[in-house]
User: What shape does this take?
Amino acid sequence: MSLATYNGAGLRRDPGFLRRMWAMVVKEFVQMRRDRMTFATMIMVPVLQLVLFGYAINTDPKHMPTAVLTRDDGPLTRAVLTAMKNTDYFDFRQQVHDPDELDRLIRSGTVQFAIEIPASFERDVRRGDRPSILVIADATDPVATGTAIAAVQGVIDTALRRELRGPDAAVAATPAPFQITLQRRYNPEGITQYNIVPGLLGVVLTMTMMMFTALAVTREIERGTMESLLSMPIKPVEIMIGKIAPFVLIGLVQMTIILLAAHYLFGVPILGSVPLLITLSTLFAASNLAVGYTFSTVAQNQLQAVQMTFFFFLPNFLLSGFAFPFRGMPQWAQWIGEVLPLTHFIRIVRGIALKGNGFADMQVDVLALFIFMIVAMGLALLRFRRTLD
Amino acid sequence: MTEIAIEVEGLTKSFDGRIVVRDLSLKVPKGEIYGFLGPNGSGKTTTIRMLCGLLTPDSGRGTCLGYDILTQSDEIKREVGYMTQRFSLYEDLSIRENLEFVARVYGVPNPRAAAREAIQRLGLSGRANQLAGELSGGWKQRLALGACILPSPRLLLLDEPTAGVDPKARREFWEEIHRLAAEGITVLVSTHYMDEAERCHEIAYIAFGELLARGTANEVIAQSGLSTWVVSGPDLQHLAEELHKRKGVDMVAPFGTELHVSGRDKRALNAVIAEAKKADGAHHWTRGQPSLEDVFILLMSNAKDNYA
Assistant: This one.
């Protein structure tokens, strides 16, 4: 083979714009096909998400859990409750016997509505005394409760008029034989920021925390430093905690900034304990860091790690109750929501900021976050390969 | 009786059904510089990784510093310094920060002082705060060695430490290796360079996952039974092609303006040379000494034949 083949003038023609570009296109496709994981995510994920979120998201939630306290069990009371049930907005889950219990259920978020029908409701209606039905709504998320509240007066009215015939027809003819006392708890003015801004704390923490640690292990592998690290006397759990801990501090700084802004820029009240909020936010940050770290042990390169965080972030954003009412989603979507850390944190942060909740009101959510963190860390340690096999 | 630093038997490792190391046995005495030679992809790196616990052998057994390589990799890691083929310290940390990190991981009592000492020993004093990623190949290699010896290991595993390093830096590197060996540290070093192989106390040659020869450089040459003639003169390219075809000539290799003609069968080779001399008076023939390189290239081409 002579050098002239390469250097001789005129032996090689300039291939031109199209051919050079085509060379690049072919190479890109070959590389794309090699990276099967990226290829799969490009095809599968959009379809999956379209179907998932398309069916899951609903801004007009129905079947919201409702607790009832009836001090009267006459036919009129039953008619009222049946009418409410028929709207599909209310799902009567619990019958309680004292008002404190109603308060507790609303505060812990177990129910969205609480209804109290007063003693001698039946008699008072028939006498034309216009007794008052108490409707308590958890208005933390004004979108979730708005339509139900708007419907409630009309349906009860229609139901009672149907019942009140014969001798009581005169009562039915008056404007309305009863009154509704509506309590929009925790956000009486229905200010959207009160709902969104505390939730943003969770969203921002999810996005940033996960991203930080998702790159942690893949970066070491890609840069070739993992080989050296593995040959040193350091254990996987030490590497993991060492990589997570600095970001917990970063998370604390983020939290402080967001909480200050929430309070002073948006006027969001923080009724509960600030130290408790900070502590639980730290727990939340740590569970996201653990998830990110787990991704990092699964992903083969940094690009995959970033894709994983993004695909984990989307359901967190859409199904946690941050962007859309949690109770508006079909049951299966709520189950998915229940296993996402942001769902529980949103409840915690709204609970502390708007409801003034204490630790006792949020035990389930705190436990969920904690389990989430432990499981993620356990998986990461299982996935972490101590050798290069 | 000499103390043994590494003693392994029957190490085998395969990746995706392809055998990379086959039934390999090694015995390295303490305080020795043991050269590990072989072509690219011959299993040198895989063997070294099995020795320090980074890979689990499919079969075989053995000890490293008296610890079982299958079950005691934690103990091995504490006392072995492994220098990877590719630079694997943190490029976004400075020299000092890298060394302090290593010192802390190994639990060296005063990490800052230990790092400072290592920097001085390496002659890196002026560069302590320079990022490792900004160093040239020679300095990176020096830093990597410094990081390996900082925790005072008893055994150094060096995987092609001098690849891409200039001759002066290579020489200094080997002086350092000999100093360390004199202090009692055992060194297993893999290399492609024949001059480096000759600086080792003992060498092992591995090709396609199999150990083909071992001993001192002179022993390996003697074992090969190779004899060599050196020829100079006009049109060596043509002569080389002619000689290649002849029975008794195993290898013809150009060295500058000379050819090295070698064969394992001394009598057959001599016959070919005598004939060539008679037929053509233009070339000058002298008896030569086979070099380590001649021996290795022969071993390698034979090994390849076995596989084909």
Chain B touches chain A through 22 residues (CB under 8 Å).
